[in-house]
Each structure stands twice: as C-alpha cells, then as structure tokens.
Design brief:
Distance between the termini: 72 Å
Number of helices: 7
Largest sheet: none
Structural class: mainly alpha
Number of strands: 0
Order of helices and strands: HHHHHHH
Shape: extended
Strand content: under 5%
Number of domains: 1
Helix content: over 70%
C-alpha cells in the first residue's frame, strides 16, 4: 500500500467511520435485545441481516470496477445471469448515487457483526434524542401561549 492509498483509506474511515460506528452500535444493541427476548442466538439473528449489505457491497464493486456493463454481460451467455448482472449494475448505480448512505450502511453492519460476536453493547440504555421534532414538541407544550394584545 502506498502512502497515497493509506491517506485515502484514513480519510475514508475518518468520514464514514463515526456514522458507521453509531449505526453498528445501535444495531448490535437491538440484535442482543431481540435475542434475549426471543431466546435465540444473536449471531443467528445478525447473519440474516448481512444479506443486503453483501448485495450492496457486491453491486458497488461491480459498478465501479472500471468495466462497462457490456463487458460483464459478454462473459456469460445465460439470460438469467445477464439479468442478475444487470440488476446488480442498476443497484450499484443507485448505491453509488446514495454513496454517503450506502457506505456507512455496509460498514455499520460489519461493525455490528463484530460487536455481536464479542458481546459488546448488550446493555445500552435507550436515550431518546433531545433534538429534532420530539424536542420541538416538548418545548412547544411547555411554552406559554402568546397574548395577542396590540
């Protein structure tokens, strides 16, 4: 790995790492809670949640491999495989447009898998957000009505 590639990787992780960590931590907590509630294995529950990120990662890899769709379709004569490659190409195009959501999604699911395997974040407290619409509604309910005296 060259210095440039290392710098790109560090920048990539600095941008997407925090969001992926927050998503992965939340997902790991919910998987542990579901496993406790249902009495099943947390790893078994998490394994089912890895299919979509695997498809997104595969489609991004296919789409941004540097080859055109026609080159990929020339490799096979099967209509079914051509349809699957075309669907992955389309999915990769959409994931490429939604890059800033797709990458933390895939990295977050990978982090959640590691967290579930090691038993991290089993006992997180649910902390509702104080910002956003819920916080606005609470502040509005506490506010006094304004007088329309002129």
């Amino acid at each position: 790995m060259t210095i440039f590639e290392g710098a790109v990787l560090a920048l990539f992780l600095a941008i997407f790492g925090p969001l992926a960590f927050l998503y992965g931590r939340s997902l790991a907590h919910h998987v542990h809670a579901q496993a406790r509630r249902d009495g099943g294995s947390a790893l078994r529950i998490m394994a089912a949640k890895l299919l979509l990120p695997a498809l997104v990662a595969l489609s991004l890899t296919l789409r941004f491999s540097g080859s055109e769709l026609d080159e990929w379709l020339a490799w096979t004569a099967s209509g079914t495989l051509c349809a699957a490659i075309s669907a992955l190409w389309l999915m990769g195009s959409i994931a490429g447009i939604l890059f800033f959501a797709a990458i933390p999604f895939v990295l977050g699911r990978c982090f959640a898998l590691i967290a579930v395997a090691f038993g991290w974040f089993q006992h997180l407290e649910h902390q509702p957000s104080r910002s956003g619409a819920a916080g606005f509604r609470e502040r509005a309910a506490r506010a006094e009505p304004e007088d329309d005296e002129g």
